[in-house]
Amino acid sequence: MYIEPRQVHDLKTERPEIAPPLPVTLRIVPLGFYLAVAASIGIAGYSMFQIRQASAELDRWNAQSAATQTELNRTKGERASLESRAKRASDFVNWVEGSRNLQPLVATICRSIGSRAAITELALAREDKAPFQIKVSVALQTDETRQLDATLEEITRMNFRPYSAQQRQSRDQIDYEATLIWQGAGGSSTPPAETPPAVAPPTETAP
Question: CA dist 31 to 25, 37, 43, Å?
Fold first, then answer.
């Protein structure tokens, strides 16, 4: 369809401006906005870099702390081993020191026996936890009542103190058991809290 061209007249009247244009100084607002966006991007990138660096530093410190803890545990193990060895050495020394009195004690007991008495049994025993305590068990074949007293006097002169003594006596047999506590070279060791008499009364008497 063909439309013939024709002239159109604009009959609108002139209208005044609704608002004045923006001042020139406000043109920096967009520029400031773009600068703020760029600064935000830069700060965000720098923050991410710092976070990664801090994470790497934290991993390094954690690894160093784990290595230090491993070294500390190894040192504690070595220290515990040394303390155990030192305790064993100290116990061995105490055991050896406590055994020095055994031979003189046996010799003293044997020399204290008179001509009318004889030793039928003699046993000495010690425990690891108390090397200076000697459990003695002796059986004397004698008809003299003073023989055991003489033997105990000789033992006391060696700075031994009988403890938990038990005595059984028959017609010609005396069985004596006690724990001998070493009082030291000068007898300065602390005595037990409760000390029975050196010689308990006879508990069994045969006719």
Answer: 11, 10, 18
pLDDT tens digits, 62-92: 999 999 999 999 999 999 999 999 988 887 8
DSSP helix/strand/coil, 117: strand
Distance CA 25, CA 55 (A): 45
If one compares 188 and 66, the residue with the highest pLDDT of the two is: 66
pTM for the model: 0.47
CA-based angle 80:86:91, to the nearest 5? 125
Cβ proximity of 204 and 157 under 8 Å: no
Mean of pLDDT values over 17-31: 74
Question: Which of 148, 126, 130, 158 lies closest to 197, judged by CA?
Answer: 148
Q: Which two tokens stand for residue 84?
A: 């155990």
Looking from the CA of 77 toward its CB, the CA atoms found within 13 Å total 6
Q: What is the end-to-end Cα distance of the chain in Å, rounded?
A: 163
